[in-house]
Amino acid sequence: MITTLQKYTIHDVVDGFVYNELEGKGLFGLAGKLTIQPEYQRNYIYASDGGKREQAVIESLLKEYPIGLLYFNKVRDNALEVLDGQQRITSVGRFVTGKFAVKDANGHEQYFSGMAEVQREKIMNASLLVYVCEGDEPEIKDWFKTINIAGVPLTQQEILNAVYSGPFVTRAREEFSNSNNSLVQKWLKSHFTKVIDWISGVFTDVESEMKGLEWGRLYEAYHKQDYDPVEVSKQVRELLSSFEIKDRRGVFEYILGGSQDTKLINVRVFDEPTKKVVYAKQTKAAQTKGDSNCPLCAIGHDANHEKIWSLSEMDADHVSAWSKGGETSVENCQMLCKTHNRAKGNR
Question: How does strand 70-76 pair with strand 79-84?
Fold first, then answer.
């Protein structure tokens, strides 16, 4: 097994942190690149003693004490999972997202958001030493048993979960790890909380189009996937500002699904083969007449009257407006230079 020592900051590790309240586990960190609780890890227990252990982690950071080595398993490029340190990382992630408070020098409870900026920076800029491990599955799971020599000892069952992991074990733990599963109202409240936490972790900007969406269904379908909140925010802004998107409310599920199902956003764009066919036809006709291959340039009187634009300098446009029922087809497509197409789109 190959191990490489790397340095991260708390800010790096908790970027995009999401905590599942019902299942008692942190989900993702490092902007979606780190799986905090892989299936061989036990659920979060540092909050079970009245929060003393998770508070101790934060107090250590405030005193600038090291919180120990962490071990990550490199699953593939840009994909890591926590091998050792899940409890500590989850403690910090829970604190910076407002899940619990610590007591200040006067014995008053203090949440992360209410701390002085210098204290918040002390936590977020704290350095973490991490060994990134690469190896096959038996090596990783054997190493997981080996490094379990400090902190809160694992039970024999938890070690078995590590060695014998898989879909069946994961499903069984989901079913039986919640001791209060008969209290329906409490479950509903916890479920609501975890869905809201997940939404907030993935979509950092609140948009009016988010209101009333089937977030429970979306959570069930996508919450086990990892996302980079920064990249998601960028995609949301780009799509919501595009005049080619008809169904703006479908943007969020479109992004969650990997930007594959264009039916969700009812997008009005021509595919590349259509653009090439129409471009070739227009350009040939324009060269015969000695006019520009942009119809709007051709009827003008400026220097572009006879300009032949390259395909990359043109955009596809609906002859009969898409908003008025015009089809997105070869017959209803014309190529315009980017300047004219954008001017037309802004009218």
Answer: antiparallel
